[in-house]
């Protein structure tokens, strides 16, 4: 069983090589796309309500489904449109999906931030998690759908899981302040939902990998000032991406070059200055191809731009080092504020998306500021592989926070060949695989249930 679990990690790695079908709209039998769904549009006057206010509620139009086809056997699922705030202080609305397992412990709530990593609003997890969700070809929604398998492991512990569309209504990928505030307001909305979800005096934790770690990390940094009333027991941040410029150099011409146009367009969705930078510096003959990221999800971006040189698209080789670009990328870098909540950070030494030294540096900044951080560096992995192999340690750490077990104060850094050499991690992996199989077989998710 333990060997079977290790197959989960390579699954993340092989996705970019899957042949992509032509871009398409939602299946006629599938859920309505977010851009076409009135549920996602806030009611008139919502701006006057406080952040975290619930604006609308519904049951998901289609069942929650792992990988878009395997119905998740949960006690209940809810969608909430709630009020949050954009980068510039303006009121916006986004959606959270709250999943309740069988035999739920309503006092334990995990906010899981998926690596949506897309500049297309139709790639939101609230849509992607539904049965027959289809956008951007055959594999367009596969990344958020794949992360639903990890969410299943949390549900199987009895935790209520809330998943915000943390990129907001404009899919502001890399605009991390938007994501952080959306995460915190998603927790506020979870509290307000108690008459519907039965969430009671919750212990909150947060978890995210890669793009999800950016949202979770910014939420941790912003919490003391943006949402000081929230009691968050800790956050697990995997595959962290603390700074944008090193990623541009790391991924160009390689496997993940599609992150660059998606990220630039995501910032342009939030910052008019970046849109102007695109308009003035992308070659006219390359503009249509560059703009394709506006209608593609993460997997589609990876496949479409695979191996390309992003500088072939621009007439200005210094486009990413202009004062405007540098200022905005710096605004969206981690490390401006010191989190007050405990952190578990895990990172591949050989990370092929974001250099490990950037995470080393931001952890050092946190530690100098008095944060409590457990930092684990993994040698036998890369960015995609650690998404699977690092999950057991994250679950163990989050479980300890959920049960209010004391942390070891201060900062603790360790480097190991692989976390899978730890017997506790192997045991946790085995339980995760059981949860994954239960998800795929539509068996009941929750502690003490069989089916």
TrEMBL record:
Any one GO MF annotation of this record: triacylglycerol lipase activity
Pfam (any one): LIP
InterPro entries for this protein: AB_hydrolase_fold, Lipase_secreted
Record's keyword terms, sorted: Hydrolase, Signal
SUPFAM superfamilies reported for this sequence: alpha/beta-Hydrolases (SSF53474)
Hydrolase is among the record's keywords: yes
Family: Belongs to the AB hydrolase superfamily. Lipase family.
Protein name in UniProt: Secretory lipase-domain-containing protein
Organism field: Aspergillus avenaceus
């Amino acid at each position: 069983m333990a060997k079977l679990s290790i197959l989960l990690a390579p699954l993340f790695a092989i996705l970019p090589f899957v042949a992509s079908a032509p871009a398409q709209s939602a299946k006629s039998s599938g859920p309505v796309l977010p851009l076409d769904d009135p549920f996602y549009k806030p009611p008139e006057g919502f701006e006057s309500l406080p952040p975290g206010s619930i604006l609308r509620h519904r049951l998901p139009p289609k069942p929650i489904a792992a990988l878009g086809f395997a119905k998740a056997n949960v006690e209940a699922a809810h969608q909430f449109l709630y009020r949050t705030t954009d980068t510039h202080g303006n009121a916006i609305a986004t959606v959270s999906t709250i999943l309740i397992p069988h035999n739920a412990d309503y006092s334990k709530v995990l906010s899981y931030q998926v690596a949506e990593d897309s500049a297309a609003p139709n790639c939101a997890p609230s849509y992607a998690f539904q049965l027959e969700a289809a956008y951007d070809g055959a594999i367009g929604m596969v990344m958020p759908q794949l992360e639903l398998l990890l969410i299943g492991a949390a549900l199987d512990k009895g935790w209520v899981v809330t998943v915000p569309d943390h990129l907001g209504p404009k899919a502001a990928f890399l605009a991390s302040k938007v994501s952080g505030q959306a995460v915190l307001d998603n927790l506020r909305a979870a509290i307000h939902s108690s008459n519907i979800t039965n969430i009671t005096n919750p212990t909150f934790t947060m978890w995210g990998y890669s793009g999800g770690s950016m949202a979770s990390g910014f939420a941790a940094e912003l919490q003391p000032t943006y949402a000081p009333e929230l009691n968050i027991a800790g956050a697990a941040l995997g595959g962290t991406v603390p700074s944008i410029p090193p990623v541009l150099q790391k991924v160009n011409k390689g496997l993940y070059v599609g992150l660059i146009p998606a990220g630039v367009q995501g910032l342009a969705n939030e910052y008019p200055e970046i849109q102007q930078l695109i308009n003035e510096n992308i070659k006219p003959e390359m503009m249509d191809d560059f703009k394709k990221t506006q209608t593609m999800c993460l997997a589609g971006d990876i496949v479409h731009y695979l191996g390309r040189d992003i500088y072939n698209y621009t007439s200005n080789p210094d486009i990413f080092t202009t004062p405007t670009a540098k200022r905005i990328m710096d605004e969206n870098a981690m490390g401006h504020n010191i989190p007050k909540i405990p952190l578990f950070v895990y990172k591949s030494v050989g990370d092929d998306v974001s250099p490990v030294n950037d995470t080393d540096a931001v952890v050092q900044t946190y530690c100098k500021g008095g944060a409590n951080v457990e930092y684990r560096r993994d040698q036998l992995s890369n960015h995609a592989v650690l998404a699977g192999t690092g999950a057991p340690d994250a679950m163990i750490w989050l479980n300890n926070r959920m049960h209010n077990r004391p942390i070891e104060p201060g900062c603790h850094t360790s480097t190991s060949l692989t976390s899978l050499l730890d017997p506790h991690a192997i045991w946790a992996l085995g339980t995760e695989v059981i949860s994954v199989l239960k998800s795929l077989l539509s068996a009941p998710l929750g502690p003490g249930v069989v089916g």
